[in-house]
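Quick board copy: two proteins, each given as sequence then tokens.
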Amino acid sequence: MKRLLRPSSRRGFTLIEVMIYCALVTVGLATFVAVEVSARKSVALQGAILDVEEQSRRFLDAWRRDVEAAQSVTLKRNAKAPRGVDALVVVRLDGRRVEYSLGKRVESDAKGTKLGEDRYAYLQELSFKLSKGQLEASLSARRSLGQTNLTRTYRRVATPRAAAAVLKDAP
């Protein structure tokens, strides 16, 4: 005996319904992946911005602290260096000597013994300018993140607190 099935009594999905479901799931997953990739890039970029700003802030804070506690400040000029300044040498009131150059800060005691060195990898340009008893520092920090280049420029002014501080421009 053969049993005939009526169309209304069949159960399950047709091939068309399964294909439409798969297409909708694929579009949903592709959208989720695109949003996830964009969010990861954004987080990485924000992290890079924080790194550059933190490193620049630490450099400029140390520079300002040293200049304000200076008994003498000397700009070392070098025509081959960017903007003509090779380094800045600060002798603090406590006798410690601090030399700033592109990407580093080296501190030594009065005898010349090296006490420490800080490196600043993201600093690309550094210049110092002396005018009217004040010292101005300008720096440009750059970091590459894939195909994105992040560049920030900072400028600070500091004045030695000691009335007898000597600010000089060495040739």
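And the next:
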Amino acid sequence: MAPAHHFDLRTLLDAVEAASPTAGVDALAGVLTRMAEATEVSFLIADAVGGTLVRLARSSTRTADSPQRPEIVAIAETAAGVALRTQQVQVVPAARDGDGDGTWLYAPVTERGDAVGVLELLLPVTPDEATVAHVASAAHALDVPELARALARWLDARGIGPAVFVANSHG
């Protein structure tokens, strides 16, 4: 696992700001992949109405990066859903989910107490406390209004109908 000092929040935020409107979320996932030495990083945004999380970006060393269409992840009975509802980081062995070796880390993305999404990382080893804290800080530091604009541009660029971004507490 990457030592905690490899996490540079300013670098992460600068990468998101420097990216094109439709690539901001992908830039976030790519930088977090390198910083955490993760096998996979995704950003999932909450769809409170549908009771799901929507995967907007994926940076992966195992599969193709971000899909052209959003992937749907259930909130109920998933570690990502627990992270969203409790607003607490969840660390889960990948083998439990049938994904082989490594550890999944789910960090809630919140804005003023409202759960709006989850950062999902597949790490090669169980993260230490410092790594968990740094990923949680990265999730907390995300600028939700900018993510909402990035989401709208991302959906528009892929020809997906209009969307309304509404933060809603699940906790």
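Board note added afterward: Confidence is low (pLDDT under 50) at residues 1-5.
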